[in-house]
Specification:
The protein has about 425 residues and is α+β, with helices and mostly antiparallel strands. About 25% of the residues lie in helices and about 20% in strands. The protein has 2 domains: about 200 residues, FAD/NAD(P)-binding domain; about 150 residues. Bound molecules: flavin-adenine dinucleotide (FAD). The site of flavin-adenine dinucleotide has 42 residues, from helix 1, strand 2, strand 9, helix 7 and helix 10.
């Protein structure tokens, strides 16, 4: 495609939760949308090979902090949602309203359009059930969580789609990208955007690299949705030097124990149930990892004896609300050492998870090393974008996890979709 010969109304950079929503909504309003996506667009097969290239390749999807905390992001059409657990958490309406953002109507719209519901009983796997029963027995209000899955398409023989869903059961933003394309939006893959072209304090286009060539494309509106790490890197290169500081990434540990009388199937759906320990600053959920990830994460903490025991393992994920600190380098290197308070939150969760697992009959309990998958707060509303998500430059907007203004700690996709819908309405009303 020769982008210079085409006229676009909007360029959207990145096709994850934020970018795909904006592209879908604007294309439905007959806007001419161009999506630029660094990742590939190959059919999802559910293979580890695909996941390795798009999520686990060091320096691309997988970034390490100096504490060797592995930060994951999906570089793919559909972004991180391709690899997500599809758990939808309630949106913090009041917090957003305090920044002048009301997405109540947009979230209602989302609920009508997407299959958001707790899993039906036959989709709850034995690990999740065992952990939920044990937690409830100890007095926890441990309940099924909302998932965004087309449950009527599910079959027990399908593996859970940690590596991308070939059956279309799990919702991912790729579905919105495909809807946008059906509405005549254009998508260029392998296009790594470097910076926004600014003239007289107004964004007029972007510069990107594809197949080793530097290219430019122009449009009257530019939306940066390259995720919590990608967006601040592009903004810094475009003159917004304050982007990429004091962020969150929601650090995680997984607590594991072995039980003899269980056989965890490969279709076990992770994060089916859990609890939000709001006062203590973390969530706890079941977490069925695939075999390779179970092995790698046991290896990381020298539990070589537990690398191949996935089918006999109960796993509880603790995801903490870390405070806002740290900085990104200009190339997207992540500099953030977990402070004592944040480690303590995870340790409190570890102690609770240990008791739940023991009560479920588990032995040989241990925890994995830290990792994270929700980078955000790098281009905060109220600091670097206004309540319409506009930057200091005319016609330049940001819409993804980076704009979240406060410490977070929750799965963010439902909120980001709401923000994407609201931005699209704002742009079409202008
Ligand atoms: C393993 C895993 C499981 C998760 N499970 C859940 C869950 O159950 N529920 C939930 O709510 N959240 C979950 N999350 C988090 C959630 O997926 C992300 O927070 C969310 O997708 C962020 O949306 P985003 O639009 O900010 O960024 P992303 O979805 O990451 O999208 C960013 C996009 O920008 C592209 N990009 C980056 N840089 C450039 C560039 N320079 N040029 C062009 N394109 C670029 C990327 O390829 C990507 O497509 C999970 C995350 C991971 C990693």
């Amino acid at each position: 495609m020769n982008t210079n010969e085409q006229k676009f109304d909007v360029i959207v950079v990145g096709t994850g939760a934020g970018g795909a929503t904006v592209a879908r909504e604007l294309s439905r309003k007959k806007k001419k949308v161009l999506m630029l996506e660094w990742g590939d667009y190959v059919p999802l097969t559910g293979s580890f090979k695909h996941c390795f290239k798009s999520l686990l390749f060091p320096g691309r999807g997988l970034l390490f902090t100096n504490q060797m905390l592995g930060l994951l992001r999906g570089i793919d059409t559909g972004g991180s949602t391709v690899f997500s657990c599809a758990t939808f958490f309630p949106v913090p309406f009041e917090m957003l309203k305090s920044y002048g953002i009301d997405i109540t109507a947009e979230v209602e719209e989302q609920k009508k359009e997407l299959p958001i519901a707790p899993l039906k009983d036959e989709m709850i796997g034995p690990m999740s059930k065992r952990i939920m029963e044990s937690a409830q027995d100890l007095g926890y209000n441990w309940q099924k969580l909302d998932k965004c899955m087309y449950q009527d398409k599910w079959k027990p023989e399908y593996k859970f789609s940690h590596y991308g869903d070939p059956h279309g059961v799990k919702w991912s933003a790729r579905m919105y990208v495909e809807e946008a394309i059906a509405n005549e939006a254009s998508l260029i893959n392998g296009a790594k955007v470097k910076k926004v072209i600014i003239e007289k304090k107004t964004a007029i286009g972007v510069e990107y690299k594809k197949d080793g060539k530097k290219l430019k494309v122009f449009a009257p509106k530019i939306i940066i949705s390259a995720g919590g790490i990608g967006s601040p890197v592009i903004l810094r290169a475009s003159g917004i030097k304050e982007a990429g500081y004091n962020f969150f990434f929601d650090p995680v540990i997984v607590v594991r124990g072995i039980v003899k009388d269980i056989d965890v199937p490969s279709h076990e759906i992770p994060m089916a149930a859990g609890i939000h320990m709001e006062d203590e600053g973390y969530i706890m959920t079941d977490m069925a990892f695939p075999a390779a990830i179970t092995a790698i994460s046991a290896f990381q903490v020298f539990r070589f004896d537990k690398m191949l025991s996935r089918r006999k393992t109960l796993q509880i994920m603790i995801k903490a609300k870390d405070a806002l600190y740290g900085k990104l380098t200009d190339n997207g290197g992540v500099r953030k050492n977990l402070k004592r308070d944040d480690k303590q939150k995870l340790m409190r969760g570890f102690e609770r998870a240990k008791k739940i697992l023991k009560n479920a009959g588990a032995k040989s309990i241990f925890k994995t090393w830290y990792f994270a998958g929700h980078p955000g707060g790098t281009v905060k509303v109220g600091e670097l974008v206004d309540s319409n998500l506009k930057t200091k430059y005319e016609n330049l907007y940001v819409c993804d996890c980076s704009v979240i203004p406060e410490a977070w700690g929750l799965p963010p996709v439902a909120t980001i979709i709401g923000l994407g819908k609201r931005l699209s309405k704002h742009l079409t009303s202008e």
